[in-house]
Specification:
By secondary structure, this protein is mostly helical. It is 44% helix and 0% strand.
Amino acid sequence: MAHEHGRSKMELPDYKQWKIEGTPLETVKKKLAAPGLRDPWGQGEAWRYMGGFANSGSFIGWGFAAFVGAVGAEYYLESLNKDKKHH
């Protein structure tokens, strides 16, 4: 008998809810269809271009802003302690 340690099985969303149409993957699908190929993982990757996941650029912007703020705070706090000698 396995112990879950407070974790239950994660429920995954149904892959059929993600649509390739209207995403950059639609172009890939058309180019692959020309020589008779298909992308078996295309529909599974469509989630990256839909909903809240589509705005990943804003997340990168906030992350960069947080990094700049942290570095600025570090330099400021170091300048306050510049005259003090360390042991």
